[in-house]
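Readers outside the structure-tokenisation community will struggle with the description of the input data as it stands. I therefore recommend that a typical entry be quoted early in the introduction. An entry of this sort, consisting of the sequence and the corresponding backbone structure tokens, reads as follows:
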Amino acid sequence: ELGQVSPIQFISIAERIGMIKQLTEQVLITACTQLVAWKKQGLPSIRVAINISPNHFLDPDFVPLISRVIAETGIAASDLELEVTETVVQTHQKNLSVFQELKTLGVSLSIDDFGTGYSSFASLKHLTVDCIKIDKYFIDDLLTDQKTQLLVGSMIEMAHNLDCKVVAEGIEEPEQAHKLKQLGCDMAQGYLFSKPAHPEEISTIFNAKMELS
């Protein structure tokens, strides 16, 4: 009846009613199974990134879940990226140990919506993070606001100095992508490249690009 429902709507509800763990497990299994299927189809190496709720990240069952999903689906651990928000990027020992256990499994870790939460530089000093994702909030006025350009440029430089890759979120205009490239951003995502698509559509996109190359 509702059709497509935004994650902004259903994730908060899932957290509130205690369904986030089951939802996360289903998303992990579905995404990892699909990635393995794409590889069997001969598509190029792809990394799948999955958002993890702060409510679930520090659950004692979380790391064992990740380990089990990797084993059951046959995905290469290095092809799985887990995105966490800044709310779990703290220096508490429990948080640090979860990050370390996940890195031991071989998965990649990224900080989502970087710059919009309570950024903790002390945390970045202690955590081994592979990537930070600059929030769309900064991209929207990147072309018109000099302060935003300085902030984005500083975040990119800082991340590179910490051996982190940088992804810019919410790219909708070619000029935004061009400016980010000038600033040294590694990767970009947004409607400029593709709107959310079904797995079959993604296969078609990749096959078309392979034929062009």
